[in-house]
């Protein structure tokens, strides 16, 4: 039986092999405090090697995804030692990198608003789903700072030209536009549709082999950093490792035998 870690700022629930992680400080609009960052790191470390956990959804309690960084903490740090600000930024950067590379499929379900660092967390996820009237914005430059650690994930999510404009101008936009910009993969007109879209994504993932999903994610993340002359070999090793593993053998056999593979789960 899977044991979930103890967290102070996140609420966790596991159902049918799918973990839901809730930002759980709704009275503060679910800020990305140091404690929330550490809790998220704890969850990632706890599940990354558990293939029985097939995916993870991140969302916010109180109908609000995440307001971004803790400005009270930033205010105190603005007059403190440079190394403290650097340490905090590095820590967030490392946790975002771990989230981006998590072997499971990750889904951000956005209600209310996803701002600044909160929207950066969503951009690290594989799939983003949000309400048409949810609010979005990379507000950092409006308060004299930069979207430093989230920048590469913003560019990864919506492309260089769009991401550059959104971050430089601290643009504000809603769900419908977020869909057109590529920030959201799916836009829901109401909460029922939002839940249905998440369920559809989950069902798709639960029909996929968990080890193959992890290997595919490693392929996607690793390919851009692989020198061109090594890309063919990198892909060949990735493919052969899957094909000759237990999942590859089971998957090919199930297709030939016209049956569902043993990892297929219905929800």
Number of helices: 11
Mean pLDDT: 96
CATH fourth-tier homologous superfamily of the largest domain: 2-enoyl-CoA Hydratase, Chain A, domain 1
Which descriptor suits the 3D outline?
Answer: globular
- What portion of residues belong to β-strands? 15-25%
Just give the CATH class of the largest domain.
Alpha Beta
Please give the largest β-sheet: 6 strands, mixed
Radius of gyration: 19 Å
Helix content: 40-55%
DSSP strand tally: 11
State the CATH topology of the largest domain: 2-enoyl-CoA Hydratase, Chain A, domain 1
What does this entry look like structurally?
The protein is α/β, with parallel strands linked by helices and 267 residues long. The protein has 2 domains: 10-206, 2-enoyl-CoA Hydratase, Chain A, domain 1, CATH 3.90.226.10; 210-256. It has 11 helices and 11 strands. The protein has helices spanning 34-47, 71-78, 82-100, 116-124, 151-158, 160-168, 175-181, 191-206, 210-222, 228-243, 246-256, and strands spanning 10-15, 18-23, 31-32, 55-60, 68-69, 105-110, 113-115, 127-131, 135-137, 172-174, 186-188. The strands form 3 sheets. Strands 1-2-4-6-8-11 form a 6-stranded mixed sheet, sandwiched between helices. A 3-stranded mixed sheet has the order 7-9-10. Strand 1 (10-15) and strand 2 form a beta hairpin. Helix 4 crosses helix 5. The longest helix is centred in the middle third of the chain and has 19 residues, at 82-100. It is globular and about 65 Å long.
């Amino acid at each position: 039986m899977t044991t979930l870690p103890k967290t102070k700022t996140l609420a966790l629930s596991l159902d049918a092999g799918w973990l839901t992680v809730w930002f759980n400080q709704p009275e503060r609009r679910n800020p990305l405090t140091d404690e929330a960052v550490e809790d998220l790191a704890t969850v990632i470390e706890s599940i990354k090697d558990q293939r029985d956990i097939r995916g993870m959804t991140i969302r916010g309690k109180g109908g609000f995804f995440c307001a971004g960084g803790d400005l009270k903490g930033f205010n105190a740090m603005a007059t403190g030692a440079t190394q403290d600000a650097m340490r905090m930024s590095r820590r967030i950067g490392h946790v975002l990198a771990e989230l981006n590379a998590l072997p499971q499929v990750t889904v951000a379900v956005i209600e209310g608003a996803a701002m600044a660092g909160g929207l950066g967390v969503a951009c690290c996820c594989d799939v983003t789903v949000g309400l048409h009237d949810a609010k979005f914005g990379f507000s950092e430059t409006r308060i004299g700072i930069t979207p430093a650690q989230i920048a590469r994930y913003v560019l990864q999510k919506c492309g260089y030209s769009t991401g550059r404009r959104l971050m430089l101008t601290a643009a504000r936009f809603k769900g419908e536009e977020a869909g057109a910009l590529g920030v959201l993969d799916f836009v829901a007109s109401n909460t029922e549709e939002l839940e249905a879209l998440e369920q559809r994504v989950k069902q798709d993932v639960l029909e996929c082999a968990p080890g193959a999903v992890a290997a595919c994610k490693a392929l996607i993340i690793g390919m851009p950093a692989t020198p061109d002359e090594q890309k063919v070999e990198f892909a060949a090793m990735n493919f052969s490792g899957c094909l000759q593993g237990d999942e590859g053998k089971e998957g090919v056999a199930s297709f030939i035998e016209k049956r569902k593979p043993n990892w297929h789960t219905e929800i």
